[in-house]
Design a protein that fits this description.
Blueprint (H helix, E strand, L loop, with lengths): L1 E4 L5 E3 L8 E5 L15 H4 L5 H13 L4 E3 L1 H4 L5 H17 L2 E5 L28 H8 L3 E4 L5 E4 L4 H8 L3 H5 L9 H8 L9 H4 L2 H4 L12 H11 L20 H5 E2 L16 E2 L5 H4 L1 E5 L2 E6 L2 E3 L4 E9 L2 H4 L7 E9 L2 E5 L5 E3 L16 E5 L8 H5 L5 E7 L6 E5 L19 E2 L4 E2 L8 E8 L6 E11 L10 E11 L14 H13 L6 H16 L8 E2 L4 E2 L8 E6 L5 E11 L5 E11 L20
Helix pairs in contact: 4-5, 16-17
C-alpha cells in the first residue's frame, strides 16, 4: 500500500496500515485526475486539473495531525495488473482502516451564507450517490466528513446518518458499523447497488467485493460475466438463498422468451432493486433444510419443491420474505419462492420477470402443498439465447398422461428409478430425469432409445400397480441421407397377476417383467438400453431380498406401434384380475400451442358397478398427491 506524505507529497510504501495512520479520499473521477506516474514529477502533477483534490486532502490531514493520506487516482500503479488486482481486492479494508474519510462532492453547491452548515436537499442529487465504487467507501469508512465544491464541511457520517439511510437504502446499523454486514441478507445488500453505475462494466461486480467479503481475479474485457463470477463467489461463501430472490428488471424489456426462461443467476444488481426490505424467515431450519453448491452444470440445490400444476412448474422456497404490504397481499408473511420448469437436462428458472410468493413462512413438510422429500435440483447459471429453443420445445415427442377413474376413486402415479428402492430415499423421486410431475409428462427430447415407465395404482384395486410402458421407435426412409428421421410412439401395459397380495406401495417391476421388456426392445431393434434394464432387474431382485412385496407374474399385451400415416388413437384393454374392472390405455397424437408434437396417453379405469352399489363408495379424491 502506498501513502502520500502530507508534508511534501512524496509517496511511501507501507506494509502495516494500522501503524501508519492515514486519511483517505472518496470522490468521483473527472478530467485531469493525478495519476501514479504524475506523482514522480510534482511540477507535472500540479498542472493537472484535479491537483486541488490532492492538495486539499493533505491539508485537511495535516490540520488533524494525520501524517499520511491515500487517494485512489495516484496511489495505485494501474499499469500493473497485479497491483490493481491487489488494490481492488483490498480497497474495502483500506477504507475501513483509515483514520478518517474525506468525501468531496464537487457538484454540491456552496451554502449561500458561505459558512459551514449541514447539507440540505441538494445532497441527494450529488453524482457521488450514483456511482458504484462509492457504495463500499460509504459503508466501510468509520468516520466521514462531507465537503462541498468549495471544500466547506457540510456534515459527517454521524450527523447525516438519517439522510444517508434514506438516499442509499442502507440499514442504519450497517452505516454505523460495517461489522453488521453478515447479518444482512445477500439480496438486500445487492439492492443497495441497484441504480448505481461504473465506467467499466466489470467494475459493477468488482466494486462489491468488500461488501460481500469475497475475492476475485480481475479480468477486464469479460464484460457482464464479471457479475456472474461475483455471484458464484458469493454462493461459495454462504448458504443464503436470498441470492436467488432477484426479479429480471433490466433497462429494456426483455423478449418474452427471455422472460419465460432464465438461468439461476441475476444479470445485474438492478435485478435486486425490489429487495430493499427483504428479510430472512424465522424458521431456524432455513440454514439446515436447504443447501446449494456451484458445479460445472450450474447451481445444485438440495431443496423442497411444491408443484403448481396450473402453471405447469415448481416453486422452490428461498426462506426469505418481503413484508406483505409491499406485495399487496393480506397476509402477515409471504415467503419468496422462485419458479422452475423441468427440462430433459434438469431445470431452468421460469417467469423470472415476476416475484412468486407463498402464504407460508416455511414449507409445511408432509402437507399436500409441499413435497415431503428433499430433492436434488440443478439449474444452469445462465441460459444463452441459443439454448432457449430446446427449453421452449421441451414437450416435443413427449408422453403426457391423463388418468380417468370413477368418482370417489383415488389414484397415484410414480416413475421407477433404477437406483431405488432404498429406505433413505424417496421412491417417488424426480428421477429418471425424463419425468415431469408438474405436467405428468415424459420429456423425451426426441431421444429415440427413450423408454418411459409409469406406475398407476387405484384405491379400488389394492395390491395391483399397473405399469404403462412407452417409448419411441426411430425409423428412416429408404435413404438415411435424404429422408428425415421420424419418431413413432409405442405403448404397452403391464398387469400383475397378484390378486391375493396385500396392499403394496407401487412396487418396482420384477425379473419376469424385465425379460418381457427385453422382448419389446428386441422386436423394435432397440438394444441401447439393455444394460440399463439389467441394472433395473438387479435393483428389483435386491428389493425382493430385503422383503419388499413385488409382483411375481406378468401379462404383457401385444405391442402396437403407430404407423407414420396413421397417428390416430392407439388403444388397448387389459383385465385387472377383478372381474368388474378393466384398464384401458389410449394414445392420441396432438399438437401443443407452440407447434410441438406430443402424445396424450389416457389411462382409464372402467369399473362395472353391480346392482345396489353406489358409485364413489370408496372414499378419497381424484389426483396424485405430492410428486
Amino acid at each position: 500500500m502506498r501513502l502520500i506524505d502530507v508534508t511534501d507529497f512524496s509517496l511511501i510504501e507501507v506494509y502495516d496500515a494500522q501503524a501508519n495512520p492515514y486519511a483517505i479520499l472518496s470522490h468521483t473521477w473527472g478530467d485531469g485526475e493525478v495519476t501514479f506516474q504524475d506523482m514522480a514529477n510534482l511540477e507535472t502533477a500540479k498542472e493537472r486539473n484535479a491537483w486541488s483534490k490532492v492538495e486539499q486532502t493533505c491539508a485537511l490531514a495535516r490540520s488533524q495531525n494525520i501524517p499520511f493520506a491515500w487517494i485512489d487516482t495516484c496511489c495505485i500503479d494501474k499499469t500493473s495488473s497485479a497491483e490493481l488486482t491487489e488494490a481492488i481486492n483490498s480497497m474495502f479494508d483500506w477504507y475501513k482502516k483509515a483514520a478518517i474519510c474525506y468525501t468531496y462532492l464537487n457538484d454540491l453547491p456552496e451554502h449561500p451564507s458561505g459558512a459551514p452548515s449541514p447539507a440540505d436537499g441538494d445532497l441527494e442529487g450529488c453524482r457521488w450517490f450514483s456511482r458504484g465504487w462509492t457504495l463500499q467507501e460509504l459503508i466501510a469508512s468509520k468516520a466521514i466528513e462531507f465537503y462541498d465544491e468549495s471544500w466547506n464541511n457540510r456534515g459527517t457520517k454521524k450527523s447525516l446518518e438519517g439522510q444517508l439511510c434514506r438516499i442509499t437504502g442502507i440499514d442504519r446499523d450497517v452505516l454505523s458499523n460495517s461489522e453488521e454486514l453478515p447479518a444482512i441478507p445477500v439480496a438486500r445488500k445487492m439492492s443497495w447497488a441497484a441504480g448505481r453505475c461504473t465506467t467499466r462494466v466489470e467494475d459493477v461486480a468488482y466494486s462489491l467485493l468488500g461488501i460481500f467479503g469475497v475475492n476475485m481475479a480481475l479480468i477486464y474485457g469479460e464484460g457482464s460475466k464479471a457479475f456472474i463470477r461475483l455471484q458464484e463467489a458469493i454462493a461459495q461463501s454462504t448458504n443464503d438463498l436470498s441470492l436467488f430472490a432477484w426479479v429480471a428488471d433490466g433497462p429494456d424489456p426483455p423478449p418474452s422468451s427471455v422472460r419465460d426462461y432464465h438461468g439461476i443467476l441475476a444479470g445485474s444488481p438492478q435485478d435486486f432493486a425490489g429487495c430493499g426490505n427483504l428479510r430472512w424467515t424465522s424458521d431456524p431450519r432455513r440454514r439446515s433444510r436447504q443447501s446449494f453448491a456451484v458445479t460445472n452444470k450450474g447451481v445444485e440445490f438440495q431443496t423442497l419443491l411444491r408443484i403448481d400444476r396450473e402453471a405447469g412448474d415448481y416453486l422452490m422456497p428461498l426462506y426469505c420474505y418481503i413484508p406483505a404490504w409491499e406485495v399487496q397481499v393480506f397476509a402477515p408473511v409471504v415467503m419468496i419462492a422462485i419458479r422452475l420448469v423441468k427440462t430433459p437436462a434438469g431445470f431452468v428458472r421460469h417467469k423470472a420477470d415476476r416475484r412468486s410468493v407463498t402464504h407460508e413462512d416455511t414449507p409445511a413438510v408432509g402437507s399436500d402443498n409441499w413435497d415431503p422429500f428433499t430433492r436434488t435440483v440443478c439449474v444452469p447459471k445462465t441460459v444463452h439465447p441459443a439454448e432457449l429453443a430446446p427449453t421452449q420445445s421441451r414437450f416435443q415427442y413427449g408422453f403426457r398422461f391423463r388418468i380417468q377413474a370413477p368418482r370417489g376413486v383415488t389414484w397415484k402415479m410414480t416413475t421407477y428409478n433404477p437406483v431405488l428402492p432404498r429406505p433413505d430415499i424417496d421412491p417417488e423421486s424426480l428421477c429418471p430425469s425424463y419425468w415431469d410431475p408438474a405436467n405428468l409428462t415424459f420429456l423425451t427430447a426426441g431421444y429415440a432409445p427413450f423408454t418411459g415407465l409409469l406406475f398407476v395404482a387405484f384405491s379400488t384395486l389394492p395390491g395391483q400397480a399397473f405399469a404403462v410402458f412407452c417409448g419411441l421407435s426411430r425409423t428412416v426412409g429408404w435413404s438415411y441421407l435424404t429422408t428425415p428421421e421420424r419418431h413413432l410412439p409405442w405403448v404397452a401395459i403391464h398387469i400383475p397377476d397378484n390378486r391375493e397380495a396385500q396392499p403394496i406401495c407401487i412396487p418396482p417391476p420384477d425379473e419376469n417383467w424385465i425379460k418381457a421388456v427385453e422382448w419389446v426392445f428386441s422386436r423394435n431393434r432397440q438394444t441401447s438400453y439393455l444394460d440399463s434394464l439389467d441394472q433395473t432387474g438387479r435393483a428389483a431382485r435386491n428389493a425382493s431380498e430385503t422383503g419388499k412385496s413385488i409382483p411375481t407374474k406378468v401379462a404383457l399385451p401385444e405391442l402396437r406401434v403407430a404407423e407414420p400415416d396413421d397417428l390416430g388413437d392407439l388403444e388397448m384393454t387389459s383385465p385387472t384380475g377383478n372381474m368388474r374392472s378393466e384398464v384401458k390405455v389410449a394414445v392420441e397424437t396432438k399438437e401443443t400451442r407452440f407447434g410441438e408434437c406430443i402424445y396424450d396417453v389416457q389411462v382409464v379405469l372402467d369399473e362395472q358397478i353391480s346392482a345396489g352399489e353406489e358409485p364413489g363408495s370408496v372414499p378419497g379424491r381424484h389426483g396424485p398427491p405430492g410428486l
